[in-house]
Amino acid sequence: MTLDVVFTPAGLAASEVQGRVVFVVDILRATTTICAALHHGARAVIPVASTEEAMRLSQTLGADDILLAGERGAVRIPGFALGNSPREMVPEVVRGRSLILTTTNGTGALLAVSGGARVYLAAGVNFALVAERIRAAWLAGDQILVVCAGREQRFGLDDAYTAGRLVHAALGGGRGRKGINDAALAALELVRRYGTRWERPLTSSQAGRDLIRSGFRDDVADAARPDAYPVLPLFSDRRITAAPASESSDTSSTP
Amino acid sequence: MTLDVVFTPAGLAASEVQGRVVFVVDILRATTTICAALHHGARAVIPVASTEEAMRLSQTLGADDILLAGERGAVRIPGFALGNSPREMVPEVVRGRSLILTTTNGTGALLAVSGGARVYLAAGVNFALVAERIRAAWLAGDQILVVCAGREQRFGLDDAYTAGRLVHAALGGGRGRKGINDAALAALELVRRYGTRWERPLTSSQAGRDLIRSGFRDDVADAARPDAYPVLPLFSDRRITAAPASESSDTSSTP
Description:
The structure is a homodimer.
Chain A: E1 2-6, H1 14-17, E2 21-25, H2 30-39, E3 44-47, H3 51-61, E4 66-72, E5 75-76, H4 91-94, E6 98-102, H5 106-112, E7 118-122, H6 127-139, E8 143-148, H7 157-171, H8 182-194, H9 199-204, H10 206-213, H11 217-223, E9 233-236, E10 239-242, H12 245-249
Parallel strand pairs in A: 1-8, 2-7, 2-8, 3-6, 4-6
Antiparallel strand pairs in A: 4-5, 7-9, 9-10
């Protein structure tokens, strides 16, 4: 078994993803927002790379139950129904609908790992479920890859801390470090530093500080609420859906 | 003043480098080896991207006092006089000569930052000098960039720890964290973890373990010897030379 963390998806080759159980992290805010949407009844979230692709796909699908969502520079894309805030993903708006989502970092990370054997989305708001899932994958001897969206192709403290929490969960508190890469080791140090409370690493990170400065303090607070949106998003066949409850508690993770 | 760390040079734009005081780290082994060469009397080290370019440049210069050096997969390039081991850089071989060097990660990192206002090379073997230099730059209010060579475009624990030591030196033990990026914060955590002894982070890193497995245990041990090669390599006009002693102790770092 191996467990590798990458701090950005930059340069990730298809061959590095293939056959692996992948966990994608963009806690501020894409994976948090997607958890909120699915937990509140959205049928699916379809990640796309660009504004243009989002609009084109929306026209192709043409259905009434499609919502465009996304941001650039943290701000909702003009003409889109929704931004990238978990606060917008309320049941009255998203229930029964599919979202087409494009964000600065998160959707790119998702598209980079679409070839994984299984691709889960991780955040603080669904941490207990992903922790259980990564632990099961580790015990099953799977090849695991944790992909941080990061920040414009660079290291982001918020995602790296979350990755550390995942590594910690996978190892189950065991002290062995065999099979984990340098980035996973460094991510673990952030857990040692910040403990199990999400606020500090999120508000200390550049992404968190930028969001707070842009008026999204509530979104950062939302992202720091453990298990607020207990759902296990699974990215498969170009769309993200909530894994069925049986999958969530399934201890055999063989893809 | 700002102090940014990047864990790999991948995607580094010229605009991010321009006007900045840059410290390049490839402790296993390029920056260590270059310190050894310059300390033992090499006139200059010229980093190039490829084996072909090394050979072409060697032919163009055509001088007797040129040595080809470099590795791929840690092993000396066939036909080259030297590999990339600090142990090879003995006075009898390198004194008065110029080396053309190409390595898997380090020389690429150097070429990526050649547009910096000043570009220094950092390792454990010259740490006191670079620590003094980065502290002076920080106090002078310079824009500082620490570039880790990393490992095939990925995070490497060995370089990240060294970057953390540099950040720690820059801040001078101060507790302020203003102006430093997320990667610098994470690198500092590695110093908190490993303390000031170089052995542990080097031998724990994938690069270190790979070198040991390939029979280069002595090189890892060499890299962990603080101030074994007290020289301040400065990369300017395509070549790396030892900064004069006055520069080493100059406290004004304005480029």
